Amino acid sequence: MTVDTTRIAAGDLAALLGSRLCHDLVSPLGAIGNGVELLEMSPDFPDIAQSPEMRLIAEAVSAARSRIQGYRMAFGMASGDQRIPLAEAQRLLDGMTAQGRLAITLQADGNFARTDIRMVMLALMCLETAMPWGGSVTVLRQAPCWRLVATCARLKHDPELWAWLDGGAARTPAASEVHFAMLSETAREAGKRLSHQLDDKGGEIGF
């Protein structure tokens, strides 16, 4: 029997697609950012850098670029031997807070497996879904474990979504909720056990 070695697993194909989309979006956003910088330095527009319109554009472009880098980490390809330095992990978390409602604090040292940082990003997206009105998250690493501890004034809890983190699928997530299924699948492939708990004032995800 001939084995077709050209086939790609569905999960890997989705990750490749995510990497490609993020890569292609970063380039035009970078061009827009460069254009904004050139306008700000141009003598023809001496006060444009201080205008609220230009500041709004610059901040939006910066936030979008940071967010896409986070998406690349969360949804792109990740091999088990890749390492992420502390500075890059911090930059990715800072990107999650840009123009967002979450305040994120990282308490960790060293460098980390890319798969771990991918799971951290996906877990943050899950907590972000549960805290649409804002809140704070502390990301703690106590090797070999990670804990994401969230606090907020008001929580939105959807048990059918969070069932994905227990290994059960109560319903198919919407596109805006796909990170729940992705976190579950990533943990399964990495052989990591997920835990979570929620209450009215926050929650926690661990792995």
Number of helices: 6
Strand content: 15-25%
| Total beta strands | 7
- Summed up, the domain count is 2
Question: How many angstroms separate the termini?
Answer: 41 Å
Strand line-up of the largest beta sheet = 2-4-5-7-6
CATH superfamily of the largest domain: Histidine kinase-like ATPase, C-terminal domain
Please name the CATH architecture of the largest domain. 2-Layer Sandwich
Output the structural class. alpha+beta
Query: How would you spell out the order of helices and strands?
Result: HHEHEEHEEHHEE
Biggest pleated-sheet summary? 5 strands, mixed
Unreliable residue stretches? none
Mean pLDDT: 85
Which value, in Å, is the CA radius of gyration? Answer: 19 Å
Looking at CATH, which topology of the largest domain would you report? Heat Shock Protein 90
Outline: globular
Helix content: 40-55%
What is the highest CATH level, the class of the largest domain?
A: Alpha Beta
Layout of helices and strands:
Blueprint: H1 10-41, H2 52-75, E1 83-85, H3 86-97, E2 102-107, E3 111-113, H4 114-130, E4 135-142, E5 145-151, H5 159-162, H6 178-190, E6 195-199, E7 202-206
Parallel strand pairs: 2-4
Antiparallel strand pairs: 1-3, 4-5, 5-7, 6-7
Helix pairs in contact: 1-2, 2-3, 2-4, 4-6
Describe the protein in words.
There is one protein chain. Strands 2-4-5-7-6 form a 5-stranded mixed β-sheet, with helices on one face. The chain has a two-stranded antiparallel ribbon with strand order 1-3. With 207 residues, the chain is α+β, with helices and mostly antiparallel strands. The longest helix has 32 residues, at 10-41. Helices cover 49% and strands 18% of the residues. The N and C termini lie far apart (41 Å). The chain is built from 6 helices and 7 strands, in the order H-H-E-H-E-E-H-E-E-H-H-E-E. It folds into 2 domains: 7-77; 84-207, Histidine kinase-like ATPase, C-terminal domain (Heat Shock Protein 90).
